Amino acid sequence: MAKRKSDLSGNFDRLTKTYGVDTKKPTPEKQPQKQISVGRNEAVPLGLITLDPYQPRQIIPVYDGIKVKYYSGANDWRKTTKLWLGLTASDPAIDKQVKELLEMGQSIKKLKQIEPATGAWIETQGGEDRFTLSTGERRFWSLALTAEFEKQKEEPQLICQVIKLSEMNLERQFVEDESSKPLSAIGRARVIAGLILDRVDELPPELDRYSPNPPTDYEYYKSALDLETLMSRKNMPKGIWEEIGEIMGMERKYMANHLKLLKLPEGLQYQADVNDIPETVLREVLIYSPVQWEKIIPKTIKENLTAAEVKKIRTVKRKKTSTKDTPAAKAASRLRAYWKVTREMNSSKDLEQVATDFAAGLEKKEILKGAESLEKLAKKLRLRAQD
């Protein structure tokens, strides 16, 4: 069985590359700026907090490069929230998300923060102490958005409990997420993928989140779909599904269905995540061709479609494109009906009446065009009779 990476502290050198920090112990000549006391609660300014870019829950919008610019360090939390608030006017889901976070921010201001976030202090390469957040990202952004929305000059502080680096892991993030606000189907898919990747002996360099050029969270989690490349085998090693299932509280088949959702492009995953589209609905969406996903998911969101309704769209589409509904098929059906009626006609007067009724209200050129079409059809029918 593949070994499991126990936690973020498993390799200090690689942790340094991931968060841009120096985890080496200080020399006697250079004491850290802060005496770290594990277990205590501290009020940490948002500007000193580093977020985990591989959080299962996608909170920061992926649009307009907002997410990329924040994690690359190009934009701080103030610039990020300003751009984020600008999206609320055009995206109902983001508007709803921001309102929820602002309500949380107001609640924290009035009632104080009841549950602390968690994380660990790490010394940066420049000698500055940074607090790497393990859980509590929604609380972080609730304070940040509230500060920008209210144009607060003072930097907010997040109440954080200091934990050991060995306690920073995906299982802890999952339990925290579930207790504060259950993850969406996409969020759960990312947790399942992350737990699988944690159990791989050695990831390829391009998928190593601790490398100098780490993958994006989208690339990282999607790679769990290719077990053959990751583990040199098509099937999961014995016992891993059961181990992950115990953490997730899910059966193997249900976990496998969730994992398939990571086939969706990053933008569609974010839309499905922030709109909390259920796995059963997304499963029906995946049956369409990838080209159609871009249309089906927005339609699903706009009309709040159920799995049955998404399936019905697919059935209706097939019916519309069937040969029974083509103009030629409709014409043939109506001509057969006409032929059955003509067998009941007993005189030429009946045909005269048909011609008169057909020509009524039509211009001369339209009547002649109709006659020409019928003459061509008559020739085709005679050829069919000869064959």
Structural overview:
The protein is an alpha/beta fold and 387 residues long. It folds into three domains: 1-168, Conserved hypothetical protein from pyrococcus furiosus pfu- 392566-001, ParB domain (Alpha-Beta Complex), CATH 3.90.1530.10; 183-321, Arc Repressor Mutant, subunit A (Orthogonal Bundle), CATH 1.10.10; 326-386. Helix content is 53%, strand content 7%. The chain contains 18 helices and five strands. It has a five-stranded mixed β-sheet with strand order 1-5-3-4-2. A hairpin with a 5-residue loop joins strand 3 (117-123) and strand 4. The longest helix is centred in the last third of the chain and has 23 residues, at 364-386.
Helix content: 40-55%
Largest sheet: 5 strands, mixed
Total domain modules:
3
Question: Helix-strand pattern, N to C?
Answer: HEEHHHEEHEHHHHHHHHHHHHH
Mean pLDDT metric: 83
CATH superfamily of the largest domain: Conserved hypothetical protein from pyrococcus furiosus pfu- 392566-001, ParB domain
State which percent range the strand residues make up: 5-15%
Instruction: Tell me which oligomeric state these chains represent.
Output: single chain
CATH class call of the largest domain: Alpha Beta
Report Rg: 32 Å
CA-based shape: elongated
Q: What count of helical segments does DSSP give?
A: 18
Give, in spatial order, the strands making up the sheet with the most strands. 1-5-3-4-2
| CATH architecture designation of the largest domain | Alpha-Beta Complex
Q: Can you tell me the CATH topology of the largest domain?
A: Conserved hypothetical protein from pyrococcus furiosus pfu- 392566-001, ParB domain
Unreliable parts = 1-35
Query: Span between N and C termini?
Result: 69 Å
What is the structural class? alpha/beta
Q: What's the number of extended β-strand segments?
A: 5
